[in-house]
Amino acid sequence: GDPYATSYYGSPGSGSGTGGYGLNGRSLVNKGKVPQKCNEEGRVVVKIVVDRNGRVVSATPGVKGSTNTHPCLMEPAKKTAFLHQWNLDSNAPSQQVGFVVVNFKLGE
After folding, report:
1. Is 92 exposed, middle or buried (0-12, 13-18, 19+ CB in 10 A)?
2. DSSP string, 33-86
3. In this structure, is the dihedral angle defined by the CA atoms of residues 14, 68, 39 and 98, taken in order, positive or negative?
4. Rounded to an integer, what distance in angstroms lies between the CA atom of residue 10 and that of residue 2?
5. What gap in Å lies between CA 44 and CA 73, rounded to an integer?
6. Cα–Cα dist 27/54, whole Å
7. Distance between CA atoms of 89 and 56, rounded to whole angstroms?
8. pLDDT above 70 (res 55)
9. What is the mean pLDDT of residues 35-39?
């Protein structure tokens, strides 16, 4: 099979923080998290497009798998996705689709 094929299998843990999925053949080299400004909790799945340099070039929050799509979580989830960076891979597709899962907890 294609080592860069998109995967949507597996379920993320329930802890706070983020996870990156579906970017087979790539390793995460940097990530961050933008805090929410409302008192909501839940998981927001963000569909991302990553270039060969490992940079996120597109992010769409609230896709399948999200447990809370409250508008006040969408922007911090999107900004969090853009903080993620994967390893440079000149053999990867020019645009590789994956997912970042952002878990928001009450009071953070």
Report:
1. buried
2. -PPPSSS--EEEEEEEEEETTSBEEEEEES-TT-S---HHHHHHHHHHHHH-EE
3. positive
4. 18
5. 8
6. 9
7. 14
8. yes
9. 92
pLDDT of 11 over the 50 cut: no
Q: Identify the CA nearest to 58 among candidates 72, 78, 31, 29.
A: 78
- Which structural domains are found in the chain, ordered by start? 22-104 (3.30.2420.10)
Question: Which H or E run contains 27?
Answer: none
Task: Name residue, tokens 């878990």.
Answer: 103
d(CA 51, CA 42): 28
Q: What pairs with residue 99 in β-bridges?
A: 21, 47
pTM of the model: 0.81
